[in-house]
């Protein structure tokens, strides 16, 4: 299962996330759930880096599907919007009856 924990601060702003595991929907290279979740998370990291001035702390380990990403300091409105967009996509996947059993989405206040 692909696990995603979204970090939320006391102001209810998204400030980062952690992923781990693989969806297991299909064999490696054919797993559309893992591919979709990976695109959402990696594109969010790249977009924040490219389009905002926010600094972040990133750790990743590809074989385990592990990513730890957290904005370092105050979160800009642009970065939070990009994180909200990622959460929207992941939420839709986690509520889809065809994919819900392959993705676990949780929220953690930090």
Describe the structure.
By secondary structure, this protein is an alpha+beta fold. It has one domain: Alpha-Beta Plaits (2-Layer Sandwich), CATH 3.30.70. The protein is built from two helices and five strands; from the N terminus they run ββαββαβ. A five-stranded mixed sheet has the order 3-4-2-1-5, covered by helices on one side. The longest helix has 20 residues, at 32-51. The model has no long low-confidence stretch (mean pLDDT 95).
Brief account:
With 110 residues, this protein is α+β, with helices and mostly antiparallel strands. It has helices at residues 32-51, 77-95; strands at 2-8, 14-20, 56-61, 66-71, 103-109.
In CATH, the homologous superfamily goes by the name Cysteine protease Prp
What does the largest sheet look like?
Answer: 5 strands, mixed
Count of helix runs: 2
CATH class: Alpha Beta
Instruction: Sketch the topology as an H/E string, one letter per element.
Output: EEHEEHE
Pfam families: Peptidase_Prp
Keywords: Hydrolase, Protease, Ribosome biogenesis, Thiol protease
GO molecular function, one term: peptidase activity
Family: Belongs to the Prp family.
